[in-house]
Amino acid sequence: MQTLDLVDADSGVDFGNGVYLDTRAAGSGDRVALLLPGAERAAENATFVESLAEEFSVVVPSHPGFGRSARPDWCTTVGDLADIYVDWLERSEASDVTLVGLQFGGWIALEIAVRRPAQLARLVLVDAVGVKLGGPLDRDFADIFATPYAGLERLYYADTAFGLGDLGSAREDDVLEMARNDEALVLYGWEPYLHDPRLGRAIERIDVPTLLIWGSHDGIVSPDHGRGLAAKIAGARFEEIDGAGHRPQVERAEDVARSITTFAG
Amino acid sequence: MQYWHFSECAYPDLPDPETYDSVRVTLPNGVIDPERAAGLWDRYIREWQVADECGLNVMVNEHHSTATCMNSAAPLIAGVLARVTTNARILILGNPVANRNDPVRIAEEMALVDLLSHGRLDVGFVRGVQYEVGATNSKPFRMTERMWEAVELITRAMRTHDGPFNWEGEFFHHRQVNIWPRPYQQPSPPIWIATGTPASAAPVAAHGYKIATFLGGAKGTRKLFQAYRDRLEEIGKPPAGDDMFGYAALAYTGRTDSEGLDGARKLLWYLQSNKVAKQFTFPPGYMPYSVRAAALRGPQPSGPGAPAVSPLPDLTSMSVDDLIDQGILFAGSAKTVAGQIERFYNEVGGLGHLLLMGQAGHLGHEETVRGIERFAADVVPAVDRVTGGVTV
């Protein structure tokens, strides 16, 4: 059975705690952007990373369990992921770090921001999950595990040409990466589903300038949810990206990068 | 050999399959006519009584959010059978422990059914099928580990009689485990585990539990049982007798071969009505991601999918002859069925329990009863002459 080749201590980047992650670094700017992806394939973010790298030194890890990054047994919660990245921030020589969280990565970014690491200068959330705003009968986040793949692509993208389409004719490695990311999402986000109830209150602790960017056609978590989330974070700004779904950094890479660059000043 | 009559107690009156995506998880329960469902339950329970009256044992299982099985609470039906049967042993195979949140509650249920039946309960455990992670909200990741932790906690709860013990494991937390009442049988009812792959047979052997498998066919079952036997040898335990091995098949016995095959064709509803949408058949985490990726890249099933309990993916498209040939279906006259079972017995290296799905789909009550009665009267003595009776 075909599997992905995972990185190891030699080929991965050391994030401490015995964690070695498949990590992309791009750009040479003075300021660091730590970019936390969601469950999309790493290649989908390529244009966005390049655009962001025009202004920032961008570091993009695949989280433990995602893509080609191994997962230590102890790492089972979004809090564990946040701790790994907080440790990395504290050990880095960086200051004035812009933390960008994409979708599931937005949840991790929220967990990092409530820990208030000194290196964190600003927070950007793109179609982030992690905080439930509705009541028991409200589905804040579409149930991706109960949705057929073809339907999922319509929720993820405004233009489904960005998806893999017919999986039977997709590249095997792409489907493997998607399947491994889905599995990681189950581990970290099955119950409570894609959120942590305590974050709803904890995000009041966020004390850095925050920008929320949302795809106007997000079928997983709606722009209204994004506005509601922005309202709970002191001083947060909200921007909607027209013609983009749940992953605007894929569909409108330059626009999203420009918004972030402008926000960072 | 012990024989166990089994039915999943389907609600068989389904709309045209073209009108729904999945018979599991999403088919609205508005399809059910409550009067009809109650009537079906009357007859299914009566069929278990008939099995008891004929000297057979009875077996129940549970599934969730599916028209293929209206038994959504096996301990409840086992409790009913405890009071309306007399001699039969009652096997729950199984409690889907990785899909249930409270193992201590399961231990309580088992103890209660054991008392209600005056010690006629056999307690079986299964991981739980993948379709039901949605119905139960169970995380489909590390489910085998969760199953084993639950089994350890349940068996300890049934066998501990000197006051509360503490359990703070990876998946379950109870600080005062002290079930009341305790089971009737000591130290506990017999424990079974149903599984499908040779790798999962090893821990069953190591624990000394009975092993059973569903619809795996003679070849697959032989490998599974051999893995169990090999593990016993590796850890220096004595070889297992036939009594440690069980197998579930579809079965119908007619007056003639032709009548037996007619009944069997109706049982195939169970295989052919299991139309399940892909997202429920392959939830991430339930199987290795590489296996799921291969499945996602495979053809979209247009028709029904095979029951998840069987490792044979082409079960639904197999002919009656093929199913009989592979040992998935026992059907024909009593003499023919006895011959098929004898052959299966030899092919798998011996077994002590046959779990017989003698009712499914539209097989009517009278036909079901005739099949059970004929099996008990004519097949059992013939098979026992060959394999020797096993006393439980």
TrEMBL record, chain B:
Residues 41-349 form the Luciferase-like domain. Gene3D superfamilies: Luciferase-like domain. GO terms for molecular function: monooxygenase activity; oxidoreductase activity, acting on paired donors, with incorporation or reduction of molecular oxygen. Keywords: Monooxygenase, Oxidoreductase. GO terms for cellular component: cytosol. The keyword Magnesium does not apply. Pfam families: Bac_luciferase. PANTHER family: BLR5498 PROTEIN, LUCIFERASE-LIKE MONOOXYGENASE. This is LLM class flavin-dependent oxidoreductase. It comes from Kribbella turkmenica.
